[in-house]
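Blinded run. Sample ID left blank on purpose so nobody reads anything into the name before looking at the predicted structure. Input follows.
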Amino acid sequence: MEAMMKRFREISEDIRENINRFLEAVEGTESLLDKAIVDMKVRLDEAKDLVAIAIADEQTLKRTYQEAIDTANVWSKKADTALQNQDTTRAREAQRRRQHHLNLADGYKRQIAAQAAVVTTLKTALHEFYQQFRSAAGDAETLSHRQKQAETRSELYKLIATAENALSTAFARAEHKLKIAEEKAEMWENRNRRDATDGTKNADDSDIDRVLAELKSDVLGSNRK
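Blinded prediction complete.
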């Protein structure tokens, strides 16, 4: 029994150590979290086995106790039969054996009480460890989800930033090309306007020369008459 309690204390210390390692691994990688949880589960399973052994030992003691009581009752009946047959020798032997098994039963009863206390203590400790394990496992799962969410968000915003940069660059290039095209269009428009103005001026000069020539011809023709 002492060996079992010692082993359970060792497992208890291991589980606490694993919980501490789990807390230290919170800021580490996901693999460390997984390893800490797996180690805790192994220790927890071993602790369950020890509690099961303690419970089995308690049940064995109870059966042994009941067997001692049943045997004592058998010898008690044999003693009564011997007395009825006035066989005092066999009656005394039967009474002696009866008392022997009653004494054994008393010893088993004390062991059962002690074992029951041990089982209760182990069950309580195991329940506490199990709750710690569940809490640690839940925290690990939450952290794993948060890690994945953070990575997904990071990738998403990285893609958005890349797309925005590409779009901004494309707009800048398009605006530059548009500016060049507009400058060329304005240049050609101004040039065409100058050509049109020069053509109109030349046409006006030609008309004036023609009118003057006709006027001169009329004047000269009148004088000749």
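Unblinding after everyone has recorded impressions. The chain has one domain: 2-169.
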